[in-house]
Amino acid sequence: MRLGTIHWVPRKSGRGRPVALTRLRLQLAGLAVSLAISALIGAAFLLGREAGKRHRLTGIGRTEAVLEGEIYQLNARVDELSARLVDIAEREERIMLAGAGLNIDFSSLMPGESDPGASPGSNLFRYIDDIDLRLLLAERLAEAELEAYDSLAGHFLGITEELRRIPSIWPAEGYYVSDFGTRIDPFTGAVRQHQGIDIAERTGTPIYSPADGVVTFCGWTSGYGLEVIVRHTSRISTRFAHCSSVCVTVGQSVRRGDLLSRMGMTGRAVGPHLHYEVLCDGVQVDPDNFIIRSGSGRSVF
């Protein structure tokens, strides 16, 4: 059914062309316009979704960059803290050696180990904040330990002279054969008090001063044989008996580790050995209370 006619005039030719309008043509034209609009809407939707994806990916990339920066900083702080703790351990070893067996435990100051299986959960930033807090506490505790050890080291430096005069090392190499206290006398078989310790080794084995001091006696004494006595402090002296020879003179100053005499079996002895005594205010005390041990059964200078 013809509804009318329209004239279309091209620009180039200038000659008009009549176009008949029918219901079918109008319906087809409307359908074409609808399809074009739908295509435009679909294209716009797809372009918007792709743009959203790119925006989200850009946001994730920024988040990853921030997380990498946070983790890098935490890793650097962990390395620094580890270096501090190694420094503490080295200082501790030096101080313990200087302290002749002094043992101070600072382990209770350190925080307990965290659960290695703990998960950061959904909030990764909160997990990192928790790590940062624990590291901050550990850093403060490490600083406190360093201050404590420095204070202790300063104390030991102040009493270095006194420590050098404590008989804290073995006076000779050899086998530890008799300790301080009651024992059966090898000559009489009776139980009697043994006033020192015995270290057995071959005749001529060197005997060293266990601490700084001054030689106060060199000579023969009944029972002790050839002996040397060294005064270390106003209260502490040491005696070295049954020597085969003496290598120092009365009044001579000696340092820890200096050669005093050589092992023998002079005096009341059944074999070559050193009878070693520590005297405090003139009274024999157990030398084991002063010696820093290394190994068992055998003395190590």
Strand tally, please? 15
Secondary-structure-based class equals: alpha+beta
Residue ranges: pLDDT <50 for 5 or more in a row? 100-117
- How many strands, what sense, and barrel or not for the largest sheet? 11 strands, antiparallel
Dominant shape? rod-shaped
- N- and C-termini, Cα separation: 128 Å
Task: Tell me the fraction of residues in β-strands, as a range.
Answer: 25-35%
Give me the Rg, rounded: 47 Å
Q: How many separate domains make up the residues?
A: 2
Oligomeric state of shown chains: single chain
Question: If helices are DSSP runs of H or I spanning 4 or more residues, what is the number of helices?
Answer: 3
Mean pLDDT: 76
Helix content: 25-40%
Helix-strand sequence: EEHHHEEEEEEEEEEEEE
Task: Explain how this protein is built.
The protein has 301 residues and is α+β, with helices and mostly antiparallel strands. The protein has 2 domains: 1-158, no CATH class; 174-299, Glucose Permease (Domain IIA) (Distorted Sandwich). The protein is built from 3 helices and 15 strands. It has helices spanning 23-98, 124-158, 160-164; strands spanning 2-8, 17-22, 174-178, 181-184, 191-194, 197-200, 206-208, 213-221, 225-231, 236-246, 253-254, 259-263, 273-280, 283-285, 298-299. The strands form 3 sheets. Strands 3, 6, 7, 8, 9, 10, 11, 12, 13, 14 and 15 form an 11-stranded antiparallel beta sheet that branches. Strand 13 and strand 14 form a beta hairpin. Helix 1 packs parallel to helix 2. The longest helix is centred in the first third of the chain and has 76 residues, at 23-98. The protein is rod-shaped. Mean pLDDT is 76; it is low at 100-117.
